[in-house]
Amino acid sequence: MSQTAQAVVQNLVDRAVKLGDRQLAADIRAFAAQRQFGLVFEHNRPERLRLYGKPIMEGDVVQVLPERGKKEDSSSQLLWLVNAVRGGVADLKPYQSPSYDENECEPRSVAVDDVVPVAEYDQPIYAGLKETGRVERASDKPYQVVINGENYHALETLAFAYAGKVDCIYIDPPYNTGARDWKYNNDYVDGSDAYRHSKWLAFMERRLKLARQLLNPNDSVLIVTIDEKEYLRLGMLLESVFNGAKIQMVTSVINPKGNRRDNEFSRCEEYLFFVLIGGASVGSIGNTMLKQEEKKAKPIRWKGLLRSASNNGRRTARPNLFYPLVFSAEDGSYIRCGDSLPVDYNRNSYLTNDSEVVVWPIGEGGQELTWSLKPDTFRAYQSEGYIKFGPWDGIKRVPYHLTSGQVKDVQSGKLAVRGYDADGAVVLEQQGEANVRPMTVWNQKSHSASESGTGILKCLLPNRRFPFPKSLYAVEDTIRFFVADKPDALVVDFFSGSGTTAHAVMRLNHQDGGRRRSISVTNNEVSEDESKKLTKRGLRQGDPEWEALGICQYVTKPRVTAAITGKTPEGDSIKGDYKFTDEFPMADGFEENAVFFDLTYEDPDAVELGVAFEEIAPLLWLRAGSRGSIIKHEQPGFAMADAYAVLFDFASVGAFIDAVKQNASIGCAYVITDDTARYASVKAQLPGLDVVRLYENYLQSFKIAAEDAVR
């Protein structure tokens, strides 16, 4: 109940007391406690989720799929209880519960292939992850993760790995336009549905409550995009779920041409809600976001490394500044910086091989001069990206460096690092005034969804279509406000669609050398039109031909892969360049890694322990930072990976603790035991590490996590 409503109720109670009618006062309190104020909707609209891929077991609640070639109807929404499974046939009887009595049919037997398990949203699950592919271009960086699965169950699963650890959640949920663009209970929701808004609000509330558990309570942000159909209800829902958080709404122009509507204003905008958790604040990028043309920053001037021919610039005056720079004779790439040479040393005697070219500090007329930096300083600057080389002319390259003042500006953030060139030199941008704050109305050319959303997707995935992808640069700008100063930030998107958020995170990393991670969750649904075509062909969800055209398989995974490799799914170099903040050819790709998983559903009574560990192994790796190798199988004693370790047999606890202590890269240790005292003993001997207990029945650990997530 809102404070205003509470005040009204209390006023009525006080008046009843003054009248001497305490029973009336009690009745008012009781009545008020039963009423809802503010946003009113049916919170408990049933939401049943199909568990495609889960083995059919006795006791499962299932739905019977229509015959191949026929579309879903009311009969395929009925719930059945599996009495027995024998020889590929499931014996079914009508499912009955206090909340469900709609199936009045007779018991029946159906082929196992024609039924699919279902679960209410609040039923605990036994989740696992199955790897379906990966792409690797950066051996030492963490992985961008894409999960194909129902996002409610994925959020429950992620609670084990990331509860309280996420820096930013960016989501673009269904807008509930009434155009049959999203499903509830496996059925498209259209404008004629009397419960359309309640279904959407219940759907969103459940997922937002799980998302709240993932966010860092001390400093994090939730960003939600929406249009005019639900923005008012969404705002009230966010205030309810994130009570006490600071919430702002921004209007962003995404279609400068406008979406024409007869007899109405043409729509050109959408809205973004920002929920700031803990000490989170909006950073400044020197741009109001309102004006199309911001004041252009002065170009960054690099200073030539060669000193002038004054007395102090000659070799004889400063011999410690006379040293060789060695480049490849083939392509001019930088190889090394040599040591200073004595003043009487003949530079022509400096030994190199035929594959190398030496550049000396030589002035016009062949006069021996000096460089501006000592060799050690040059090497340090070069490793940080503060040395830049001019173009290769087949003979030499001219070196440049940042001044000490510019280096301080880079370190303080006054000069922003927007990327690195092929030699590793920083690409800099003058930051705007620190007191220039972004406004609540954005109008940026780069945020046009058609040019920077659909247009970029066409470059990455020619001949593949996805409806209404976000502008890559709009998502990038939005996230930058909160993670620009967090190079190791964790960003989650559980309505990831085409994968724009993961792409934006990789661009941010490219600009400043960050190691930010993204977790993208999407389902593998096909559009309604595609579903009709596939159904007519006798196909069903789960068939390989159907799954190949789903969002995750057909768009999300190929888009992330193409962005990293710089190649289309057909193997061609991507045509086109990235624009705006960080301009470079798309064909260059990114030095990033990505891994793809399917969310799986396990039955604890049917899975051997070794197999169960294989299913939950990626979850342990995710919690440990999603970097390095994965311990995929149970091993004798214990196992060590790059970032974590697992104790399988407590008899090996001594060797396990010693091995973990000797490996500084281990940040997480898992102890498999049902004994609380044993777990506490290991935790006490490994201070500073994330020590996690797994039950000997591995899946039990994740059943508990699911139950906790629902509460």
Distance, first to last CA: 20 Å
CATH superfamily of the largest domain: Vaccinia Virus protein VP39
Q: What kind of sheet is the major sheet?
A: 10 strands, mixed
Radius of gyration: 31 Å
Poorly predicted runs are: 704-711
Polypeptide structure, described:
This protein has 711 residues and is α/β, with parallel strands linked by helices. It has five domains: 3-34; 48-120, Roll (SH3 type barrels); 127-294 and 437-597, Vaccinia Virus protein VP39 (Rossmann fold, 3-Layer(aba) Sandwich); 303-430, no CATH class; 631-710, no CATH class. It contains 17 helices and 30 strands. Strands 7-26-8-25-24-9-12-14-13-23 form a ten-stranded mixed beta sheet, with helices on both faces. Helix 4 (196-214) packs across helix 5. It is globular, with a radius of gyration of 31 Å. The chain starts with a helix and ends with a helix. The model is unreliable at 704-711 (pLDDT under 50).
Structure summary:
The protein is built from 17 helices and 30 strands. By secondary structure, it is of the alpha/beta class.
Top keywords for this entry?
Rossmann fold, 10-stranded mixed sheet, single chain, SH3 type barrels, alpha/beta
SSE blueprint and pairings:
Blueprint: H1 3-18, H2 22-34, E1 48-50, E2 61-64, E3 80-86, E4 89-94, E5 108-111, E6 115-120, E7 127-136, E8 143-148, H3 151-162, E9 168-171, E10 179-184, E11 187-190, H4 196-214, E12 219-226, H5 231-241, E13 246-253, E14 269-278, E15 303-304, E16 325-328, E17 334-337, E18 356-359, H6 375-384, E19 387-389, E20 399-401, H7 404-412, E21 415-420, E22 426-430, E23 441-442, H8 449-460, H9 472-483, E24 490-493, H10 500-512, E25 517-522, H11 528-536, H12 544-547, H13 551-565, E26 593-601, H14 609-623, E27 638-640, E28 644-647, H15 653-662, E29 668-672, H16 676-685, E30 690-694, H17 698-710
Parallel strand pairs: 8-25, 8-26, 9-12, 9-24, 13-23, 24-25, 28-29, 29-30
Antiparallel strand pairs: 1-6, 2-3, 2-6, 3-4, 4-5, 7-26, 10-11, 12-14, 13-14, 15-20, 16-17, 16-18, 19-20, 21-22, 27-28
